[in-house]
Specification:
Blueprint (H helix, E strand, L loop, with lengths): L1 E4 L6 E5 L4 H19 L3 H17 L1 H12 L3 H25 L3 E2 L6 E8 L2 E6 L6 H12 L3 E6 L4 H13 L7 E4 L6 H6 L3 E7 L2 H13 L3 E5 L4 E5 L5 H13 L9 E7 H16 L19 H16 L3 E4 L14 E4 L6 H4 L6 E7 L2 H9 L3 E2 L1 E5 L3 H8 L6 E4 L14 E2 L2 E2 L4 H5 L3 E8 L1
Parallel strand pairs: 5-6, 5-8, 6-7, 8-9, 10-11, 10-16, 11-14, 13-14, 16-17
Antiparallel strand pairs: 1-2, 3-4, 4-20, 9-19, 12-13, 15-18
Helix pairs in contact: 2-4, 3-4, 3-6, 4-5, 9-10
Amino acid sequence: MIETINPATGEVIERIALMEAPQIEMKLAEAARGALRWAHEDFSGRGSLLRAVAARFRLERDALATTAVREMGKPLAQARAEIEKCAWALEYFAEHGEALLSSQATPSSAARSYVAFRPLGVLLAIMPWNFPYWQVIRAAAPALMAGNVILLKHATNTTRCALEIERVFNETGAAEGLFETLLIPGKEMGKIVADARVAAVTLTGSEDAGVSVARAAGENLKKCVLELGGSDAFVVLSDADIEGAAKTAVTARFQNNGESCIAAKRFIVEDSAYDDFLSRFAELAAAQIVGNPMEERVQLGPCARDDLRKAVDEQVSGTIERGARLVTGGRSIDRAGFFYEPTVVAGVLPGMRMFDEEVFGPAAAVVRANDLEHALQLANESRFGLGANLWTRDIALAEELAGRIEAGNVFINGMVASDPRLPFGGVKKSGYGRELSSFGIHEFVNIQTVWIG
C-alpha cells in the first residue's frame, strides 16, 4: 500500500493500493496503443485537448490546490499559483506547438530536402513531489503536443495529485492510453525503463535518482532528460540594490517551503555589502508567517516529510559545528507536523555542509566574498549547475559575468523561475537536456531528414 501523510499534522490521509503485474501490463499496453493513435492526431486536435485540460485546471483550481497542500504542505496561495502556471503552459504549447514543430526546409544536393519532427511514442515521466502538478505538466505539455503519450510515475507521497491529473485528462476527452499513471515502487522503475514499449524517459529528482535512471536508459539505448538537484548561487555585488535583493532573496529561498531545486541556496555577498544584506535578509526571513498551509496568511508551511526536516536540521547543526554562525531559526518547531523555523546561517565556507550539499528546506547559507572574482569562484565551487542569481546595477557587467557562471539559467536582478517560453535545465550534477520552449519540445522527437531526389 501507498500511505500518504499530511505533513502539517503527521496524520495519514489515505492508503492506496500499489498496482500488481497485470495492472502494470495493462497500463503499458494502453500507452503503446494510445501512442499509435495520438501520433496521427493533427496539431489542431492536440491543441484542442491541451486547451481543454487547461480550462479544467482553472475550473478546479482550488480543489486541486487543496490536494497538493494536504499531501506535501506548500502554502495554499502558492498551490493555486502552481495550478494557474500549469494552465498557462498547456495553453502556450497548444498555441505555439505547431510552429515549433513545423518542418524546416534545408537545401542540399536533393531536389528538395527538409527536416521533420516526428513523435517517439511513449514517454515515461518520473516526477517529484515538490511541485506535484507543475513538474508533470512542464514535461507533458510539449511532449503531448509533439505527438507523444505520457506514462507517469509520480512520487508516492503525492499519489492523489497524480491520480487527479490523470482524471482531468480523462474527463476532458483524452483517448485511452494518452495519459496513464503507474502506482509502483521506485525500485521497479528499471523494468519499466527497459520495456520495449517505452521510447524515452524524463526525470525530475535527486542526483541519485538521476544516476539510476540514466544507467537504465543507457543500458537500453533510450533518450533521457534529467533535471536534478541544485545549490543555486545568489550573488550580490557591492553596487546592488540591497533592499530589492534581500526581498527577492527571501522568496527565492523560502518559497515552496524551501523545497525547490531552483531555490537560491548559497547567498554569496561581496564584502562591502555583506553586513547590510545579511541584516535585512535575516530580518525578513524571520518575519515570515509559519503555520497551517491551508490558512491564507501563512507564508511557510511544513517540510514535506519528517526525514526531510531532520536532514535540514543535521545540515544546519553540522555547518554551525564547523564555525558558521546561526543568525535566526535553526530548530524544529514544537507542534504537530514537520515544521522547521526559517533559518539563516552566516559565515558559511566551502567544506561546510550547507555550502557543499543541496539544502532542501527552509535554511539559507550566507557566504562572504572578498571581491567580484572571489564571488564568481564561490558561485562555481559546486558540483551543481542549475540556476544562478546575479545582483548588480551594472547590467553590461552582469551580462559579461553570466558567461562565466556555470549554470543552465542565470537571472540578473531577479529570481530564477521556469517559463514555458524559455529553456530550462542544468549542467554538471544538475543533469542534462532541456525542458520547455523550442529546445524542450525537440528533446523527445525523431529529428528526421527527408531527402527527395
